[in-house]
Specification:
Number of strands of chain B: 0
CATH class of the largest domain in chain B: Mainly Alpha
Largest sheet of chain B: none
Oligomer: heterodimer
Largest interface: A-B, 51 and 48 residues
Shape of chain B: elongated
Radius of gyration of chain B: 25 Å
Strand content of chain B: under 5%
Structural class of chain A: mainly alpha
Shape of chain A: globular
Number of helices of chain B: 5
Distance between the termini of chain B: 55 Å
Helix content of chain B: 55-70%
Structural class of chain B: mainly alpha
CATH architecture of the largest domain in chain B: Orthogonal Bundle
Chain lengths: ~500, ~150
């Protein structure tokens, strides 16, 4: 059983090498990717069931025991998030295969995309599963290294500029990450998260705060928390739709996951955390206002992504079981819905040839299927019942009211306001793009780059991959009961920390 | 495993602090080349900090060669090695990207982001309306059609 924990990392990494070799055989390469992500999703289900039944599944790599060796841990939270991530990555992969076949035919392969996508998958799994801080850094680097290639592939002037911003900002945060690890190691002599959780309490308060703040800055950059969000709306929209979808769905959420994991396991704040509450309020409001000001559909969605990161921070900052459960539920909901919206935007721009909202119009009449595919995740994101966004937001609002401090009420109010602003932004998209007079498609401004738009050609594979994600998003709402139960159990685990420590360090540690 | 009491060498501490300062100063420059050098220097600082975190120097950590209590802590060195490899690889990637950028754009200056340029263009339009006699008196950079295209894409 424990060996299974290594597979979600090993499979995509080995497959990435194989995929590189298979470069000439396009169909085999595609099949390999689909098989690996399906296998990973199945593994995640197995791990989730096992972790839920009998506690965290732990693998000590190479037989070196916990504080010294490298530990992989799959508990409820990591297995749940890995499941959602792998499903989304699978759907996006199918979409991108469909897009590739539509544009270039069945037989042309892309040498870089598939291997890099698999490496990205390995990095994401590793970030969820790792049990020590340094391996978390390595996981981030694997993930980001792949993402640098994906975002700058087939560079045009626009994308090289955006990719440059993205690379430099991410690299800076990675260097701060190393600095933080050095600080943690100097203070405690360990980087194992479970081991740290016991040792950090003994440190002076000043050192503890320095470490916590460093972590907030490092993971805040990765998860695009305002005021560290500036790189995101600048770089994401320039990439092709599938790449943007998977970045928007996963990369920032891995940052949020790292924040949740470290702040609950390593530090014990005890009560709701005013500083992070402030950050969450600013993130929610500024992101939503930024979205309303946009004319570019992808930039609008990117700002909404920033805004909704605030909800997850809000849940974490409340620092009780209901708040954390809400945050986990929100991460699950948001990974799916944000990826879906970017895929739909990709479908739309293939018809319109532009991402400028003012250049679109009357799409609801022309393409009713895409309009429906947009409407469901849009309402979902805004938190209209009966979708999963409503369930997740409700959980967070309840948690906010339960904590009941002034600051918690302010943040709750901001969350409600942001929900309305999101609805407004989505209504704006709807009015500009889907209603009104239909406009002729714009020609592709740069036919040489990879971003082929305005041709009006979408294949059945692309539409069905998007529909599958939309349905998956609705299913999250259908299974909201069991999901919220499992997130409550995961949140209880997080705040307790005992089972995790025992599982990693062995019985005698408790 | 060393404990909380890491005595820090003052020379090392000052060197690392200096490297961080220089690196972040260079990161804030407008020339891409300087930014990359800045990244490299901050990388050096971080890796040296990781070394410093391992405590004072001792003997080589090989069982049978030196007694256990005189060994240096090998873990931060292993971590620093990994970090060096990663920063090295990414610096190479960054250099390739910078080369591509200078081929495509003809210079290595980092441009303002789309939002900033849009605001500046709006301001410029307002200024031009107010002073019709001096069209674009202070136009160091040309904001031509390619920027508009970028903003609407």
């Amino acid at each position: 059983m424990t060996m299974l924990v290594a597979l979600p990392i090993l499979l995509p990494l080995l497959a990435a090498g194989l995929s590189l070799v298979l470069g000439r055989f396009a169909t085999l390469q595609r099949l390999l990717g689909v098989v690996v992500f399906t296998a990973n999703a199945v593994l995640a289900v197995v791990l989730l069931a096992e972790a839920d039944k009998s506690g965290p599944v732990v693998l000590q790599l190479g037989g070196w025991d916990a504080p010294v060796g490298i530990t992989l841990v799959a508990d409820r939270l990591s297995a749940l998030l890995m499941l959602i991530s792998m499903v989304v990555m699978l759907a996006v992969l199918v979409y991108s295969i469909g897009q590739r076949i539509t544009d270039y035919g069945r037989s042309t392969s892309s040498t870089a995309f598939h291997p890099m996508y698999l490496v990205l998958g390995a990095g994401v799994s590793m970030a969820y599963l790792t049990g020590d801080l340094f391996n978390l850094f390595v996981a981030f680097e694997i993930m980001l290294g792949a993402s640098y290639v994906l975002i700058t592939r087939r560079t045009t002037a626009t994308r090289v500029r955006a990719g440059m911003t993205y690379t430099i900002v991410s690299l800076t945060s990675s260097l701060l990450f190393i600095t933080m690890i050095a600080l943690v190691y100097a203070a405690t002599g360990t980087v194992n998260l479970a081991d740290l959780s016991g040792k950090v309490e003994a440190l002076p308060v000043g050192v503890q705060s320095a470490m916590a703040l460093m972590m907030i800055v490092v993971f805040g950059i990765k998860s695009a928390m305002v005021p560290l969000h500036f790189w995101l709306p600048d770089s994401y929209p320039t990439a092709p739709a599938p790449v943007t979808a998977v970045f928007a769905g996963l990369l920032t959420k891995v940052g949020v996951y790292a924040l949740i994991r470290t702040q609950t396991l390593v530090f014990d704040h005890g009560e709701s955390w005013t500083l992070l509450l402030w950050f969450s309020v600013i993130t929610m409001i500024i992101g939503a206002l930024g979205a309303i000001a946009q004319n570019d559909l992808n930039r609008l969605l990117s700002f909404l992504l920033v805004s909704h990161i605030g909800y997850m921070l809000f849940g974490l900052a409340l620092y009780d079981v209901t708040g954390l459960a809400g945050a986990i539920l929100y991460v699950v909901h948001h990974i799916t819905v944000q990826a879906t919206l970017f895929l739909v935007s990709g479908l739309l721009t293939r018809h319109t040839g532009t991402v400028a909202l003012r250049g679109m119009g009357g799409l609801a009449k022309l393409y009713p299927a895409i309009a429906l595919l947009f409407a469901i995740p849009a309402l979902n994101l805004a938190g209209i019942p009966p979708f999963s966004g409503f369930v997740a937001k409700l959980a967070l609002l309840e948690a906010g009211a339960e904590v009941g401090t002034t600051m918690a009420y302010v943040a709750t109010g901001a969350a409600v306001l942001t929900s309305f602003l999101t609805l407004y932004a989505m209504a704006k998209v709807w009015v500009f793009a889907f209603w009104g007079k239909s406009k002729p498609p714009h020609p592709d401004p740069d036919p040489t780059d990879e971003l082929i738009i305005g041709t009006g050609s979408t294949s059945r594979t692309m539409v069905s991959a998007t529909s599958a994600l939309v349905v998956f998003g609705v299913l999250i709402a259908v299974f909201a009961g069991p999901l919220s139960e499992i997130s409550t159990r995961a949140a209880t685990d997080l705040l307790d920390g005992g089972p995790y420590r025992t599982a990693v360090l062995g019985e005698e540690a408790e | 495993m060393n404990t909380v009491n890491v005595t820090v060498n003052l020379t090392m501490a000052l060197t690392i602090g200096g490297l961080y300062a220089v690196g972040f100063y260079l990161l804030l420059q407008r020339s891409l080349m300087r930014i990359i050098i800045g990244i490299v220097i901050v990388g050096h600082a971080a890796n040296m900090f990781l070394q410093l975190a391992g405590g004072p120097p001792g003997r080589s950590p090989i069982v049978g060669v030196s007694p256990a209590e005189e060994m240096t802590d090998p873990l931060p060195q292993a971590m620093a090695l990994t970090a060096i490899v990663i920063t090295f690889a990414l610096t190479t990637f960054l250099l390739a990207l910078a080369y591509r950028s200078s081929v495509l754009l003809g210079h290595d200056e980092v441009r303002d982001d789309v939002e900033d340029r849009r605001i500046r263009r709006q301001q410029q339009r307002i200024d031009e309306r107010e002073e019709p006699d001096e069209p674009g008196a202070d136009r160091k950079f040309e904001f031509g059609t390619d920027n508009d295209k970028e903003a609407t894409r």
